[in-house]
């Protein structure tokens, strides 16, 4: 594969054609530190930071609770699938500028043919692209800075922060919450499992010792975690895998990377239903009961 010397040529040309970002046209207000305060430096926060710059809105601050860039966002942490679920052609943080797109970035490094070959974007490549996006566009991020409370203060907001563990208050006119999965609530472990020893229960948001599952029977609670589990531990290392879900969704397609036999049970119980602890709600048993009822009525 022939690589161009300047991998960022298209991106540079795009910025060149756009011209310099306009100067900040938002008048300063006494007592207000930031025009816009962006919470979260994942793909959403960085895309907003760039868009605001291009719109001539200055004094924008981006914070992230993560200690550094590798810990921010989901892609190198809780997301464990090999490829993104979303099609590779979906618009990303490039904001309509093809030279800043994943495709331009990928083709410059791996070639156009390679881009045609991939059906979906490999997760780690997406993480690399986002890191490049942030660095190339020089989006400054204050890592190790967590927003803990927002307080209305006249025409603006007082933002209660923890900077490397130290409390601090800053003010902003507007706040953009780009805090991703953390913004949708925290990790939830059902009460019945909470007191189990840590080696027996794990949440997908944390580290999981997959090698330790080899040869064991594993119960996966909820369908969503399927997407963050690599197929190998699920179907090969673990002796038996059982998927439990609160809702019956028989029409739901299996995740694209699901391989091997997976027995789907549907139960409200939080205990491994490998032996159908939650018989009352088990789909297969419900079917058996329905057949028996039909036979006894006939
Ligand atoms: C397992 C998994 C798989 C996924 N697969 C896909 C997929 O294939 N395709 C897809 O489009 N989407 C997928 N998603 C959704 C994915 O999370 C989003 O598309 C994407 O990460 C959203 O980016 P974001 O910047 O909004 O949030 P995130 O990437 O989650 O970033 C949010 C940032 O906010 C920071 N933050 C949170 N709270 C605070 C706070 N109080 N103070 C300061 N900083 C804070 C966090 O540290 C984090 O860095 C997946 C999600 C998960 C969990």
From TrEMBL:
InterPro entries hit by this protein: Auxin_biosynth/cation_transpt, FAD/NAD-bd_sf, HpyO/CreE_NAD-binding
Domain annotation FAD-dependent urate hydroxylase HpyO/Asp monooxygenase CreE-like FAD/NAD(P)-binding: ranges: 38-180
Superkingdom per UniProt: Bacteria
Keyword Oxidoreductase set for record: yes
Keywords of the record: Oxidoreductase
SUPFAM superfamilies, alphabetized: FAD/NAD(P)-binding domain (SSF51905)
The keyword Cytoplasm appears for this protein: no
PANTHER family: FAD-DEPENDENT URATE HYDROXYLASE, FLAVIN-BINDING MONOOXYGENASE-LIKE PROTEIN (AFU_ORTHOLOGUE AFUA_4G09220)
Record's protein name: FAD-dependent urate hydroxylase HpyO/Asp monooxygenase CreE-like FAD/NAD(P)-binding domain-containing protein
């Amino acid at each position: 594969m022939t690589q161009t010397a300047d991998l960022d040529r298209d991106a540079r040309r795009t910025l060149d054609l756009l011209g310099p970002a306009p100067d900040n046209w938002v008048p300063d207000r006494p007592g207000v530190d930031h025009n816009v305060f962006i919470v979260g430096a994942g793909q959403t926060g960085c895309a907003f930071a760039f868009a605001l710059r291009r719109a001539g809105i200055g004094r924008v601050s981006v914070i992230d609770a993560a200690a550094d860039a590798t810990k921010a966002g989901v892609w190198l942490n809780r997301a464990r699938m090999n490829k993104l679920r979303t099609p590779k052609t979906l618009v990303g943080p490039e904001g309509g500028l093809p030279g800043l797109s994943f495709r331009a970035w990928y083709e410059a490094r791996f070639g156009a043919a390679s881009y045609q070959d991939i059906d979906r974007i490999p997760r780690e490549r997406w993480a690399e692209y986002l890191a490049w996006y942030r660095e190339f566009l020089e989006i400054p991020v204050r890592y190790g800075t967590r927003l803990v409370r927002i307080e209305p203060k006249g025409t603006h907001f007082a933002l209660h922060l923890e900077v490397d563990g130290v409390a601090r208050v800053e003010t902003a006119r507007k706040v953009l919450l780009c805090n991703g999965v953390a913004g949708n609530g925290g990790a939830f472990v059902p009460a019945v499992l909470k007191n189990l020893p840590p080696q027996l229960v794990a949440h997908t948001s944390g580290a999981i010792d997959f090698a330790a599952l080899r040869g064991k029977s594993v119960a996966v609670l909820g369908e969503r975690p399927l997407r963050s589990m690599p197929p190998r531990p699920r179907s090969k290392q673990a002796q038996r895998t059982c998927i439990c879900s609160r809702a019956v969704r028989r029409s739901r397609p299996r995740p694209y990377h699901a391989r091997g036999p997976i027995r789907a049970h549907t139960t409200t119980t939080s205990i491994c239903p490998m032996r159908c602890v939650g018989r009352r709600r088990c789909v297969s048993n419900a079917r058996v009961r329905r057949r028996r009822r039909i036979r006894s009525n006939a």
